[in-house]
UniProtKB/TrEMBL annotation:
Lineage top rank: taxon: Bacteria
Family, per entry: Belongs to the ornithine cyclodeaminase/mu-crystallin family.
Highest classification ranks of the organism: Bacteria, Pseudomonadati, Pseudomonadota, Betaproteobacteria, Burkholderiales
Protein name per Swiss-Prot or TrEMBL: Delta(1)-pyrroline-2-carboxylate reductase
Coiled-coil positions: none
MF terms in GO: oxidoreductase activity
Length: 310
């Protein structure tokens, strides 16, 4: 079995390649899978498995220990690996660095959908969150929307954004740390949230017509990055229906009667297969990026292929 490090993954990936691989992976059969979690808020073990016909199978294993963030120096609160199984033999092929795969697949998930759902002329990008996934999302959006002229960064602890701001400054990208979130939301053409918020940060009354809202951070039923008004009257899409239905971002508006299951127009498989989606200038679009092991598998298989072709 091959063991593939984060450095090896970074050495063979770029946004065009990852987006193309993810698009191809969403034109075939849909995945089947499941997940489980044991533990509590102090320490937990998470696993999610998937079988994707024509591609293979895989399992993500993660250890979640929030107290690591308070260590000196800080340690990752989540440590993970992704195991890839061969399509034919069902044997173990490789184990890849989990956080690095997550960083690429999460941002590519959102960016692939946003190529269709966001305005081609978007100029202002607002990113909520200060972690590595938030930075990866920023990179991915700048790749798919070269029209973006300004990036607004927001986090509850603004000092955590200094490295991200410096990195964007070095690339000559217009960047500003926002202190008034409502005002930043009102200015943005694209809003991306990658936080662990349990109370809504994005208020629907501040979101302009034509804005694309991408909700990434919430994965539990009690987590909610946008209030119910963000969903009211919006065109709603998700990456994978089963996983999205378990998130508070989707569950809570449904429980409140603001949206119904039939209000979800489609998932990422639909967006990759169909060219019939037409976006009007005033359409507000909402995309719930709930993730899934099939995304890890597609990106991991692409990494393995790229390493072999060297």
């Amino acid at each position: 079995m091959q063991i593939i490090s984060a450095q090896q993954i970074r050495s063979v990936l770029d946004w065009p390649g990852v987006l193309d691989a993810l698009h191809r992976g969403h034109t075939g059969a849909r995945p089947s899978g499941g997940s489980y979690f044991i533990g509590d808020s102090r320490f937990g073990l998470f696993s999610r498995g998937v079988i994707l016909p024509g591609t293979g199978a895989g399992v993500k294993i993660a250890s979640i220990h929030p107290a690591n963030g308070a260590a000196v120096p800080p340690l990752p609160s989540e440590q993970a690996a992704f195991l890839v199984l061969d399509e034919c033999t069902k044997g173990l092929v490789a184990m890849l660095d989990g956080p690095e795969i997550t960083r690429w697949k999460t941002a590519a998930d959102s960016a692939l959908a946003a190529r269709t759902l966001s305005s081609e002329h978007a100029e202002v990008l607002l990113v909520l969150g200060a972690g590595p996934v938030a930075r990866s999302l920023t990179d991915a959006y700048l790749h798919i929307r070269p029209s973006i002229r300004e990036v607004l960064l927001w986090n509850r602890t603004p000092s955590k954004l200094e490295d991200a701001r410096s990195a964007l400054d070095a690339r000559n990208v217009g960047v500003r740390i926002a202190d008034d979130l409502d005002a930043a939301v009102a200015r943005a053409d694209i809003i991306v949230a990658a936080t662990s918020a349990s109370r809504p940060l994005i208020r629907g009354e501040c979101v302009r017509p034509g804005t694309h809202v991408d909700l990434v951070g919430g994965y539990r039923p009690d987590m909610q990055e946008a209030d119910c008004e963000v969903f009211r009257g919006a065109r709603i899409f998700v990456d994978e229906r089963q996983n999205a239905a378990q998130s508070g971002d989707v569950q809570i508006p449904m429980q409140a009667g603001v949206i119904r299951e039939r209000d979800i127009e489609g998932d990422l498989f639909d967006l990759c297969r169909e060219s019939a989606f037409h976006r009007s200038v005033g359409d507000r679009t909402v995309y719930k990026n709930a993730g899934g092991a099939h995304l890890d598998l597609i990106v991991s298989q692409y990494v393995i292929e790229q390493l072999k072709s060297r």
